[in-house]
Please model this.
Amino acid sequence: MSQETDLQDRLQDIEIKFAFQQETIESLNDAVTAQWAQIDALKKLLSQMQGQLADLEDAQGPADAGNIKPPHY
Model:
């Protein structure tokens, strides 16, 4: 009887650990999914800001005429 009880206890411990691992995996998956959504939003924002900066630089012209490369470069 002792071996059977020991085996049942070990099986129960494994089932408990498995349940906690499943919960942890789901939690980590949710965190990664949220981070990817945030990264995508930040990429879009960065792209918009780069476009705005390029527009401002084009509209303003060069800051120092001495730093302009000649057309043959």
